[in-house]
Structures are given as C-alpha cells and as structure tokens.
Amino acid sequence: MSTLDPLNHADYIRSRIRTVPDWPQAGVQFRDITPLLQDPKTFRVLVDVFVHRYMDQRIDLIAGLDARGFILGSVVAYELNIGFVPVRKKGKLPYTTVAEEYELEYGNATVEVHTDACQPGQRVVVLDDLVATGGTMMAGVKLLSRLGGEIVEAGAIVDLPELGGSQLIRQAGIPLFTLCDFAGH
C-alpha cells in the first residue's frame, strides 16, 4: 500500500468544502465540493488520496455516480489506467440499460447503466462526492452487482453520518471509504 495517509488530508479537504445553508431547501446544509475542484493543488491532493488508495489493488473499473461522482471517478480511473463507468439518472444513456429505483427523502429516483457496463467478475469501485442517505450509492452497487461486477469498495469525499447512508452501506456488507465527514456540523 502507498504511504499517502488520507487522515493527514481530511482536515485540509474538509476546510475547502463550502457549506451553502438552506439549499436546495430550507434547513439543508449543502456541502459544495466545487471549491475543491477549482483549486489545482486541492484537486490534486483529493485525486491522489483515492489513486493511492487503489493503485496497489486489482481494480478493473471505477463507476462514478451521476453527476459529481463523474468528476472524481473519471480522473481516478484515468490515473489508474482502468475503465470508467457512468451510473446515470434515468433516460440519459443512449444504449440498452438496466435500472434501479431507490428512495429519496422526498420521492423516488432511478439510475441506470448500460447492460455492457461491466463483465462478470470485474472488480469495481463505486465513487461519488458524498454519502447522505446512501440510496444512490446502494442503487449503483446493486446495478453493477446485477451485471456480475464484484464491488471492492464504495467511496466518497464526504460522509454525512447523521443521515444514515454510511451505516446502511456498511450493513449491506459493502466496504466504505470516505475522506472526511461533517458529523455534528
């Protein structure tokens, strides 16, 4: 394993995540990762933490969740010299798809992947910007598993533990890595 310690970078990354109060609705503290992406040094540190985490493991694919998971996932896949799979919102993929519906705080949503997104036995890491209720992450995991993918780990920049998603993912037997959390913030 690499010597890059994510614990040394968690506070650095957390300090560069902008909190937007009352967005998209009153009472929500939105954790905005765009400042991480705008600063080249911070973006490099962020990507490097994930690349170093997976570079010594046998990973075949990175799956990124729509939409901010595309940013981190595609760059990490590129750096690891492996394939990238977009897990999209319903109706956005042009080829034959499989879908998974999941519950949100206020309704349902559906994500899809192409039926040839991964092959049986391929080892997949699923990435997103944050884990809130865990619905999107679990839907992506279920889709790729249905296609025969072996889920190595789910990963995200931010964990919002009070919303229960990280606990849900771990209870489902999926290893989860998050770089920082906003517990009690």
UniProtKB/TrEMBL annotation:
It is an enzyme of class 2 (transferase). Residues 52-161 form the Phosphoribosyltransferase domain. GO terms for molecular function: adenine binding; adenine phosphoribosyltransferase activity; AMP binding. It catalyses: AMP + diphosphate = 5-phospho-alpha-D-ribose 1-diphosphate + adenine. Its main location: cytoplasm. Its EC number is 2.4.2.7. CDD domains: PRTases_typeI. GO terms for biological process: adenine salvage; AMP salvage; purine ribonucleoside salvage. Pathway: Purine metabolism; AMP biosynthesis via salvage pathway; AMP from adenine: step 1/1. The gene is apt. This is Adenine phosphoribosyltransferase. InterPro entries: Ade_phspho_trans (IPR005764), PRTase-like (IPR029057), PRTase_dom (IPR000836), UPRTase/APRTase (IPR050054).
